[in-house]
Specification:
Layout lengths: L9 H32 L13 H18 L8 H20 L9 H24 L3
Helix pairs in contact: 1-2, 1-3, 1-4, 2-3
Length: 136
């Protein structure tokens, strides 16, 4: 069965459907999930209560699974339901870590907004180069 009207990957599909604001929100959710998981998985075992020692391992597993999702959806268009479940799991892991571990630092700053804009611009430039030069 043909999938007419479907873009080459999730980012292109979301950008076409939601525009720049939607693309910013999509990339921001992904970026903040990566950042939260990175912060949690870098925690030292001596800073964590015994009951919550699994948090860095869980964060690492979620990080690897989201990286896999991003790689796969760079080549195909998939439904985003699973992405939002992963983002919810990332939020849960970060929330538990912030409640149970004293010195965890995670905040959204102007630097993060700049990084998100740079990611979007690089991706759009790459898409433009691919479409103009007819590489694929």
């Amino acid at each position: 069965k043909s999938r007419v009207g479907v873009a080459h990957n999730n980012f292109v599909q979301n950008s076409a459907e939601m525009g720049f604001v939607g693309s910013f929100i999509y990339v921001a959710l992904m970026y903040l999930s990566f950042k939260a998981l990175y912060v949690v998985q870098k925690l030292k075992p001596n800073n964590i209560k015994k009951d919550f020692a699994i948090l860095p391992v869980l964060a690492r597993a979620l990080l690897v699974s989201i990286v896999g999702f991003v790689i796969v959806t760079s080549f195909i268009t998939m439904e985003l339901d699973i992405l939002f479940i992963w983002i919810g799991l990332c939020a849960v892991v970060l929330n538990i870590a912030q409640q149970e571990i004293e010195n965890i630092r995670f905040k959204f700053a102007i630097k993060d907004i700049v990084v998100i804009f740079i990611i979007i611009i690089i991706h759009l430039i790459g898409l433009h180069i691919i479409t103009v030069t007819d590489i694929i």
